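Narrative of accomplishments. A recurring question from our advisory board has been how the design workflow behaves on a single, concrete structure rather than in aggregate. To address it, we present the structure tokens for one chain from the evaluation set, followed by the sequence designed for it. No filtering or post-editing was applied between the two.
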């Protein structure tokens, strides 16, 4: 009798995950959130905030992801400066640490530069942003760069652009050699 109960118990436990999968309706998220306002801190200091009207969590899928179907706004804080990125649609893949921002992506840096693109990927783990779509960067001095695809580190000190053109504004009143007057 004990052997029969043990076999039954283990058989039911092994099938529990399969029953759980069948009980979920096809292609539905495991959870949904409305009016999302997340605050990320490090040692009590706010480093970023995320706001979104809707969050759908598909952690029940084999390749888990989070979807922001109504857009997202993320603010990054470093010292007293703030950078902001917005998009009308976004997905985040926790397993790969990739964020896919789509539709009217706007990134405004703390120093006033503005990046506009239809799609932008952010590799959170490697601190890298990239796209193979057309983009425009408008610099705070009014110059700009149009291109199709780029790779850059998060602070844009490394920027590799493909097929680009633009207008560069050069201040001729500034002396390149500070020792010469």
């Amino acid at each position: 009798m004990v052997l029969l109960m043990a076999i039954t118990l283990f058989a039911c436990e092994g099938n529990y995950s399969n029953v759980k999968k069948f009980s979920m309706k096809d292609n539905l998220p495991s959870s949904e959130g409305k009016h999302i306002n997340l605050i990320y801190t490090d040692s009590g200091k706010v480093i970023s905030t995320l706001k979104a009207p809707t969050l759908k969590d598909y952690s029940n899928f084999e390749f888990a992801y989070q979807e922001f179907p109504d857009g997202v706004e993320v603010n990054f804080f470093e010292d007293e400066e703030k950078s902001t990125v917005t998009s009308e649609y976004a997905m985040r893949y926790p397993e790969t640490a990739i964020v896919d921002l789509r539709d009217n992506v706007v990134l405004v840096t703390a120093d006033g530069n503005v990046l506009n693109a239809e799609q932008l990927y952010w590799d959170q783990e490697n601190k890298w942003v990239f796209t193979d779509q057309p983009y425009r960067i408008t610099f705070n001095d009014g110059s700009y760069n149009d291109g199709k695809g780029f790779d850059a580190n998060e602070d844009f000190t490394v920027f590799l652009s493909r097929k680009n053109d633009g207008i560069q504004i050069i201040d001729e009143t500034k002396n390149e050699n500070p020792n010469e007057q």
